[in-house]
């Protein structure tokens, strides 16, 4: 019999975790959001407030539903607050050591029948699962950015994932109005394995000063009908996350197209992370408006 999933923990309320918390709460689920400090939690809370405010202004969410959505999300810096969660989605930084540490802690906190899911883009779900006591209850639940908007979800099954765990994860994604697919555990799954070679190529083209950022993006938007150009998309993803994803794929497959373009590393080192830091290939926040990359 399928598990009842009424309470979901979200660990890491950055770019993705905030969106995942929003989409869960919008669909009637009680959300416990955990991050490592109050500043990160405050950032996550304000992301959700802004995003739902925009949805309300566009007539996609009425005021009462927005208040109910926000009331379903509580925030904590303590992983132990997830003891009663039916499922936990981990959305911390794309680093294997950090994810394993979070999963090992969660493994001791949640009930044995609770599902542990990672939103990783490219790391091995099998390695994360194997570091826990009960690897069969671990799957990937890979949302797309922005999570409240994009309909696709990749449910990643490892060779030891229990079939009922995979089924329940698929059912949850469907309940959120998403179109889930089930995939095996290979770096980048389907979408990122196809997407990131292209994004990396665009960064290299920009680095070689072959064309301006606006013209690179216009080529794909206006010439190829993509909703967003590759450099604007890299800014949306976050350059630190994009760098980690490329590096993981490159270490796994050694394809040159996945060797991270040096400019990505340089921009990350300089704190130019994209939208989340106010500046990446483009400038977003007021305080950066006098400088142009
Ligand atoms: P982010 O850098 O925006 O947010 C990460 C959050 O995790 C931050 O709030 C940080 O404070 C928190 N965190 C770090 N260590 C923690 C710990 N030990 N315990 C609790 N919280 C911790 O990263 P982003 O972009 O949201 O990525 C998160 C995950 O989602 C990564 O695995 C990434 O690959 C994946 N992902 C990212 C997408 C994107 O477009 N950015 C799309 C789909 C998946």
TrEMBL record:
Top-rank taxon, per record: Bacteria
Transmembrane segments: none
Domain (3-hydroxyacyl-CoA dehydrogenase C-terminal) ranges: 188-284
Domain 3-hydroxyacyl-CoA dehydrogenase NAD binding residue range list: 7-185
Similarity remark: Belongs to the 3-hydroxyacyl-CoA dehydrogenase family.
Protein name listed in UniProt: 3-hydroxyacyl-CoA dehydrogenase family protein
Organism: Mumia zhuanghuii
């Amino acid at each position: 019999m399928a598990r009842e999933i009424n309470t979901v923990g979200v660990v890491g309320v950055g770019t993705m975790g905030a969106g995942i918390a929003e989409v869960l709460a919008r669909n009637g689920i009680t959300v416990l959001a955990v991050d490592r400090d109050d500043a990160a939690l405050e950032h996550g809370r304000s992301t959700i407030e802004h995003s739902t405010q925009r949805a309300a202004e566009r007539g996609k969410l009425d005021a009462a539903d927005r208040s109910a959505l926000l009331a379903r999300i509580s925030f904590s810096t303590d992983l132990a607050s997830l003891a009663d969660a039916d499922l936990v989605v981990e959305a911390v930084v794309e680093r294997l050591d950090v994810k394993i540490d979070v999963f090992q802690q969660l493994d001791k906190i949640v009930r044995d029948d609770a599902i542990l899911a990672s939103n990783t883009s490219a790391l091995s779900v099998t390695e994360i699962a194997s570091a826990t006591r009960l690897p069969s209850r671990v799957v990937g639940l890979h949302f797309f950015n922005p999570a409240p908007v994009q309909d696709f979800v990749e449910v990643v099954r490892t060779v030891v994932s229990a079939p009922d765990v995979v089924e329940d994860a698929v059912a949850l994604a469907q309940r959120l109005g998403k179109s889930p697919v089930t995939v095996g555990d290979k770096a980048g799954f389907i979408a990122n394995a196809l997407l990131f070679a292209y994004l990396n190529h665009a960064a290299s083209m920009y680095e070689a000063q072959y064309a301006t950022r606006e013209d690179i993006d216009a080529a794909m938007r206006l010439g190829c009908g993509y909703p967003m150009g590759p450099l604007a998309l890299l800014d949306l993803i976050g350059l630190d996350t994009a760098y980690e994803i490329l590096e993981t794929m490159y270490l796994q497959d050694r394809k040159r197209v996945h060797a991270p373009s040096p400019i990505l590393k340089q921009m990350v080192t300089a704190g130019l992370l994209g939208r989340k830091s106010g500046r990446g290939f483009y400038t977003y926040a007021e305080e950066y408006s006098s400088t142009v990359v």
